[in-house]
Amino acid sequence: MLEVTDLRKVYATGDEALHGVSTTVDGNEIVAMIGPSGAGKSTFIRCINRLTEPTEGEIRLDGTELTALDAGEMKAARRNIGMVFQEYNLVERLTVMENVLSGRLGYVSNWAALRRTFPQKDVEMAYDVLETVGLGGMENKRADELSGGQRQRVGIARAVVQEPTILLADEPTSSLDPETSHAVMELLTEIAAKRDIPILINIHEVHLAVEYADRILGLHDGSLVFDGPTTDLDDNAKDVIYRGETIAGDSSLSVVSESDTVTDESDREQSAVTGD
Ligand SMILES: Nc1ncnc2c1ncn2[C@@H]1O[C@H](COP(=O)(O)OP(=O)(O)OP(=O)(O)O)[C@@H](O)[C@H]1O
């Protein structure tokens, strides 16, 4: 279970992207986070696995307080958090199989990781997951030979072989055409059911959120203004989320600066996909 309490993020620029967001994600539910551009959706999802460092608040995953972990402990904890990225984050010159197996790097010794040798059971699991995502038979293709939809399936397979207890997806469909977007959302839904894990998806397209999610989180200007079953997302709720009609930002919070750098974040992204 993911439990987020009073999550606040202030970037080094002074931008307060999250004003104290609390929610839980559990079971095998599909939770879609929606909201206007700049509402803080990416920041929220990236704070969970600390690709972006939270400023304040608690993030517990299956009882472990992630914000209290040191860098080494956090790397280990990231094995439990599968991450799917908008731009796939594949290594283009590597094969589909090599990309998928990189999801197991956090489980093998440094020596094996360096030589990219994996136990037979990991390879079998990778074949299995590639079948599940509809890429059976494509394991030897290079990533740069794939379409966007196929790349995203590789990204999903890589996250799944980590055997995570939760999947996070940051705009997984926004680089894809409408048909492929549906296919990817269907795939994510199937994975949640089959693996019995929750999926938190940050998504722009409200119609996809409504079609596939069990629950909606609505962010407006860094505040969580809607948290309820998808069936409760009526026009009034959409006005609150997209126009902030009944919500005013809390300007009383003091600004705490911190020293996130782009380099830090890209290092962490690498660690998030390899568990290394
Ligand atoms: N690295 C950063 N440094 C400073 N400010 C940032 C950074 N990343 C995001 N922000 C700011 O934080 C706020 C929330 O941004 P975020 O990307 O989380 O929103 P979003 O809802 O995901 O937007 P979009 O839907 O356009 O991707 C915005 O005001 C943005 O300008």
TrEMBL record:
Protein name per UniProt: ABC-type phosphate/phosphonate transport system,ATPase component
SUPFAM superfamilies the UniProt entry points to: P-loop containing nucleoside triphosphate hydrolases (SSF52540)
Keyword line: ATP-binding, Cell membrane, Membrane, Nucleotide-binding, Translocase, Transport
UniProt KW Nucleotide-binding keyword: yes
Region (Disordered) location: 251-276
Gene Ontology annotations for the cellular component aspect, listed alphabetically: membrane
InterPro entries cross-referenced by the UniProt entry: AAA+_ATPase (IPR003593), ABC_transporter-like_ATP-bd (IPR003439), ABC_transporter-like_CS (IPR017871), ABC_transpr_PhnC (IPR012693), MetN_ABC_transporter-like (IPR050086), P-loop_NTPase (IPR027417)
GO molecular function: ABC-type phosphonate transporter activity; ATP binding; ATP hydrolysis activity
Record-linked Pfam families: ABC_tran
The keyword ATP-binding appears for this protein: yes
Residue ranges of every copy of the ABC transporter domain listed in the record: 2-246
Comp. bias (Polar residues): 251-260
